[in-house]
Amino acid sequence: MPKTEEEKIEAILKILEKWPEDCPNKPTLTQALLNPGTLHSKDLLEDPGIATLTSALGTVELYHLERPPEVLPTKLEESEIPGRHGDICHYRADKSDRLELRGIVDAESEYTAIKSTLKTMRQGQDANPISVTVRCGTAAYINGVQYWVGDIEIEPEPGFGIFWMNYSIKLTKRD
Amino acid sequence: MRNAEISLKTRQADWQSSVRNVPLALLSKRSLGRKAQSREVKDTPTIGSQEKSCFGGKCVVKIDGDTIGLADRYEAQWGYPVAKRPVFGSQIKIRGTQSYDGELRVEGLYSTDNVIASKATPVTGVLPSVTVVIEETDIQSPTPVKKTWTFVGQLPSFQKTGQADQFSIFRMTLDLSAEPTCA
Question: B73: domain range?
């Protein structure tokens, strides 16, 4: 953990180096020094993305994550009784938690990371589990949890002169 | 993106509102038949610069080559709206530069030989592309300098107003299809 000012600046520089060069929203050194929270990196030691997906086959950083909704489904069995209003439910157990990562990419390198790197990681996820970290600011509230990567959707948005695309990555927790 | 569009429309509405509020009496006091206007304005000193004088110049407005003899004022506005999208866990929004949008508004006295209204009529269902040239000439320099601004677009909005004992006035809005050029 960096302690002196020199060490902090050095750590910030290392994090900024990880940001893609073609990302127009890459923070400048001045912006990062004034507001280190934009780096989403606790103690300036973590990955720079708001969310990080990593396995032995690669790492994908999601820098512009907008919404990470979760669903906690159950195996709730419904029984219907003729002549009686309402249903009777039987709680069987929990199903695996669902997580969806929705956000924007604004650079070709970020698009390629999802389209190519993440797809490669998904193809090998049987033997190489994918760990997911999601940060709120700098606090990783989902920290290195293993998920199955499911369907990935990429939807380009018109009216921009750059790679401006919405993405959705559906994940199911590995239990 | 929606916010940016709304912001632009709000600015346009503000401008149209301010133009509507110009008393017609002001226009009636202006000399009829003049093409140009010149005036001298003393500028106040600013930080980092010496005191200087700004001079008005001649201004001619042409639409598809025809001079609008009684153009009274114009205002152009163009730019690229910025889409601001919030991201999770941060109070700093990311920004994306959006598509070009702009317009030129011209207002003046409407004379009997004016043909501007016809430019706002679709031809075989399509509004024609209209070129408006604004020539600004510096009349105070030893060697007068003329700058020619060229605006290209369509004319989706045309307005004509009149009042008893007052002049007939037109206002047109050119929706720009490209950035204006200055030569």
Answer: 2-182
DSSP string, A55-93: ETTEEEEESSEEE--EE--EEEEEE--TTSSS-EEEEEE
Least confident of A19-23, A74-78, B63-67, B74-78: B63-67
Structural domains in chain B (count): 1
Calculate the alpha carbon distances from B148 to A32, A117, B60, B155 in Å: 44, 52, 9, 20
pTM for this one? 0.75
Q: Can you give the residue range of the structural domain that contains A158? A: 5-72+94-173
Residues of B in contact with A158 (CB under 8 A): 99
Chain B nearest-CA distance from A24, in A, is 8
Mutate to test the interface with A, among B94, B98, B101, B179 (most CBs of A within 10 A): B94
Give the separation between CA A61 and CA A47, rounded to whole angstroms: 8
Is residue A22 in some structural domain? Answer: yes
Q: Is there a domain that residue A56 lies in?
A: yes
CATH classification of the domain holding B84: 2.40.30.200
* B65–A contact, CB cutoff 8 A: no
- Asked if B95 and A104 come within 8 Å (Cβ–Cβ), the reply is no
User: Could you tell me if residue A50 is inside a domain?
Assistant: yes
ipTM of the complex model: 0.85
Q: Is B92 part of the contact surface with chain A (CB cutoff 8 Å)?
A: yes
